[in-house]
Specification:
- There is one protein chain.
- The chain is α/β, with parallel strands linked by helices.
- The strands form five sheets. Strands 4-12-11-10-9-5-6 form a seven-stranded mixed sheet, sandwiched between helices. The protein has a four-stranded antiparallel sheet with strand order 13-14-17-16, with helices on one face. A two-stranded antiparallel sheet has the order 1-2.
- It contains 14 helices and 17 strands.
- The two termini are about 40 Å apart.
- The longest helix has 27 residues.
Length: about 400
């Protein structure tokens, strides 16, 4: 199938509903995307027919074993992991990061150093701050370049030393949409033998990830941000898959990704995850699942860049609004997520007014506490966040600004 936003919208029941006799506009994708019908069906089909645990000698248990294997295969294709065993599932990105941070920090010594950033969601900050506190390590935080809300690389380089053990960084800001040059960070980290832990939660629905190209040690994302259910996904590089010592239940497997998957997994969410990846791949061409994803994301990226360009053009005509972030529509530099403030109204008032017109947006800090603090907005209500996905349209950009101009 050829991708168009109108053809994509046909897969999402939520986009065609009305509330109080008025159509709805979902511009809240950074907080969680809508879900295509195929994902819903896969989850109910699994729960309704095959709900079981692993390791039984009967049909539904065997079906569940196959489901987990299939989920790893789809995770491998989505992230371009070396092997299926490099894919680990968990409750969500935050839970996985807290768990992995403890395993990674086991061998840290007193006065070792960890680098986090002010651009990150605090799931990729607090996890490392608390792990470092337990080990007596020192945490340093990279500042944001306030001119365009990107990472301050000059400051980052000044913080790296022979004591640096890990750099935790976001692939794209969940607040401003700014994309980070991960390959550059990996190169800097390798000079001192430090690990790189990437939060790709916000990046994943907008551009295709290639962990082998990045050469990062760990990467995490969440399926509910790319049209799937609430499920966390982690890539662990081959170097660390077996050498890390996770906190786990003694009888549980100590081989492969199961070492990191505590307790019974969310199998119905895995069924939904598989269909979310298949949905994305359905817009592309190619023999392999990965090839289809590469093709699909090119078209998705082109459409989202058109949305960014149109949004920024409309914004330039709205004197009362200020943008925090890159004023460039290029898809390699930003996602179609925009952080705004008004000289007239608070972010909360604007979000409420938009909500009354069924335009769904968020206001606040979105757990990017370092960013909001550095910008001096913590006590001022943060920002209004407007986030577009591939199923959004230029007409929805117009509807947003039409309502904003009447507030």
């Amino acid at each position: 199938m050829h991708f168009t936003p109108s053809s994509a919208r046909e897969h999402f029941f939520a986009l065609h509903q009305s509330y109080n006799d008025q159509s709805v506009v979902f511009l809240d994708g950074p907080g969680g995307s809508q879900v295509p019908g195929s994902v819903l069906k896969a989850m109910t089909d699994y729960l309704g027919q095959y709900n079981s645990n692993l390791g039984g000698h009967y049909f539904s248990s065997k079906e569940t074993v196959e489901l987990v294997a299939k989920a790893r295969h789809h995770g491998k294709a989505l992230l371009n992991a070396e092997e299926v065993d490099n894919i680990v599932f968990g409750a969500n990105m935050t839970s996985l990061t807290f768990q992995l941070s403890r395993a990674i920090a086991r061998n840290w010594q007193f006065n070792d150093e960890v680098i986090v950033t002010a651009l990150d969601h605090y799931s990729n900050v607090s996890s490392w701050q608390q792990a470092a506190e337990d080990r007596g390590a020192v945490v340093k935080q990279v500042k944001v370049d306030e001119s365009d809300c990107t990472l301050d690389f000059e400051h980052l380089e000044s913080l790296i030393s022979e004591k640096t053990r890990l750099i935790a960084v976001t692939y794209a800001s969940n607040t401003t949409g700014s994309i980070t040059d991960i390959k550059r960070i990996v190169e800097l980290a390798k000079r001192v033998g430090a690990l790189v832990y990437v939060d790709a939660v916000h990046f994943a629905p907008h551009a295709l990830i290639d962990v082998q190209d990045l050469e990062c040690d760990f990467l995490v994302c969440s399926a509910y941000k790319f049209f799937g259910p609430h499920l966390g996904l982690a890539y662990i590089s081959p170097t660390w898959l077996q050498s890390l010592k996770p906190y786990k239940v003694e009888p549980a497997t100590d081989i492969g990704p199961g070492r990191f998957e505590t307790g019974t997994q969310n199998f119905e969410a895995m069924a939904g995850f598989i269909e979310a990846v298949r949905y994305l791949a359905s817009w592309g061409k190619g023999q392999s699942l990965r090839q289809q994803l590469v093709s699909a994301f090119k078209d998705i990226g082109y459409h989202e860049e058109q949305i960014s360009r149109y949004f920024l053009e409309r914004l330039s005509r709205c004197d009362s609004l200020s943008l925090y972030g890159i004023a460039d529509s290029a898809h390699r530099r930003r996602t179609p997520t925009f952080a705004l403030r008004s000289r007239k109204h608070s972010p909360e008032l604007m979000a409420k007014s938009l909500g009354e017109q069924n335009i769904c947006v968020w206001n606040g800090h979105f757990y990017a506490l370092g960013l909001v603090k550095q910008l001096g907005l913590e006590d001022k209500g943060g920002v209004l966040r407007v986030g577009f996905m591939h199923y959004n349209t230029l007409e929805e950009v117009d509807r947003f600004f039409d309502v904003i101009e009447n507030i």
